[in-house]
Description:
Layout: H1 2-27, E1 32-38, H2 45-55, E2 60-65, H3 71-76, E3 79-84, H4 92-99, E4 104-109, E5 122-132, E6 135-147, E7 151-157, E8 162-169, E9 172-175, H5 182-195, E10 205-213, H6 219-231, E11 237-240, E12 243-245, E13 252-254, H7 259-270, E14 275-278, E15 295-296, E16 301-302, H8 323-354, E17 359-363, H9 371-380, E18 383-385, E19 388-389, E20 398-399, E21 414-416, H10 430-441, E22 447-453, H11 458-469, E23 475-476, E24 484-488, E25 491-495, E26 501-505, H12 509-519, H13 521-558
Parallel strand pairs: 1-2, 1-3, 3-4, 4-9, 10-11, 10-22, 10-23, 11-14, 14-17, 17-18, 18-21
Antiparallel strand pairs: 5-6, 5-7, 7-8, 8-9, 12-13, 15-16, 19-20, 24-25, 25-26
Amino acid sequence: xxxxxxxxxxxxxxxxxxxxxxxxxxxxxxxxxxxxxxxxxxxxxxxxxxxxxxxxxxxxxxxxxxxxxxxxxxxxxxxxxxxxxxxxxxxxxxxxxxxxxxxxxxxxxxxxxxxxxxxxxxxxxxxxxxxxxxxxxxxxxxxxxxxxxxxxxxxxxxxxxxxxxxxxxxxxxxxxxxxxxxxxxxxxxxxxxxxxxxxxxxxxxxxxxxxxxxxxxxxxxxxxxxxxxxxxxxxxxxxxxxxxxxxxxxxxxxxxxxxxxxxxxxxxxxxxxxxxxxxxxxxxxxxxxxxxxxxxxxxxxxxxxxxxxxxxxxxxxxxxxxxxxxxxxxxxxxxxxxxxxxxxxxxxxxxxxxxxxxxxxxxxxxxxxxxxxxxxxxxxxxxxxxxxxxxxxxxxxxxxxxxxxxxxxxxxxxxxxxxxxxxxxxxxxxxxxxxxxxxxxxxxxxxxxxxxxxxxxxxxxxxxxxxxxxxxxxxxxxxxxxxxxxxxxxxxxxxxxxxxxxxxxxxxxxxxxxxxxxxxxxxxxxxxxxxxxxxxxxxxxxxxxxxxxxxxxxxxxxxxxxx
Length: 563
């Protein structure tokens, strides 16, 4: 009996001791943020993607057109965002669903006056903001002019006067923006982070990647660059392209064949330096120094084949009779994009693994790609480093985020944004770098991400790091301590949060033969001839033995008595 009482007492203590941890875990649980929208043009999708990327830093985003949203989705959400890019009459039933939602809401653009919180809002046309609060904007932003009795949280200026930008009623907000830029987001985000019930990110961190590494890279130059970081005890990652064209563009250099560079990269990987796949490496066009692999920056269109003559042509909205016809054609091109991307990802991972280098994430050299490409990347990688393109039809809408994001339009691929530019020429870039870091510190839990091309002068790299270290609020993130998963058909790479790297590879003889033919066709041909001759000799030898046994058998039978 006493024994049972002791067991019950200890069990009670254990349950009570778990309460603080449970409460802490619940307080850190990210909310579900439901983003509903009404749009009339594919161009307006950009704003939806931007809002998705911003809010995914604070919770799990679910993005649905307002017309297809269900009552259950609205009830299960922690926060509801409604974006009206055009004026429409919202059905009574859907209005009631959103009106009865008792948690925090944010309305953006048109139609907010159809909901209870902002039913006294009046729209008075459009204009352009030149200033928000006390900040003068580098680029004018389009917004909706409104009048209402609601509390003005943020005001903006046009050339002619002052207008409300962010309004508040109880715990709901209205934002009059119908255009979105990084500059405005970085102004607005500190307010969002401090005045909402959303998940609060941890302290400021910074990460660094050395990029521009390809088979022709000098191992000595690479070591010289990485030694600068090692001396300062700054963790870093290496972005590596597995292949490149030769100088005459008629052949291909492979990392597997660059023995000294491969050895240096393997040594660094063994010392705990993560490898990131910098695309596959072959560029769509070679007439400039920028690597175009998933988006043709010059003609501003998606890439669907390595050979530009075989690529699908992109079309503008003006060439179609309706939005539906345009969307249908864009989806068709998108399917080809995904097939092309899947092949390049598989080749990139395979080539790196052949060189005994194991990538934990993916990045794109020129930072341009459509959501179709991101969707395919998300099937094979859990981590992505770089800027984001918010538009499937133009690379002009590209931007960066101040926090780690997992946007729904990227299939919740975890994105570490390259939001800081290194010093490039002398003192020219220093004020910009200082300004960018100061802006980041205004946002709670922001992360500074930077790519440094190894072709940069060592002195400018040193100066970039000097400026970084003058901001002690940032703590360097060791990317080897970030959980990641990489997967293709026959290769799985997993990195744990403790830095352990596990690689599983299913070796296939067919792949081995194919690889030998691609890398050493002459040697492969000699081996094939050798085995053909050997096979004939073996058949001849076995046939001779068979004939000898047959002959012996006959002779034996002939010598039998009464035979």
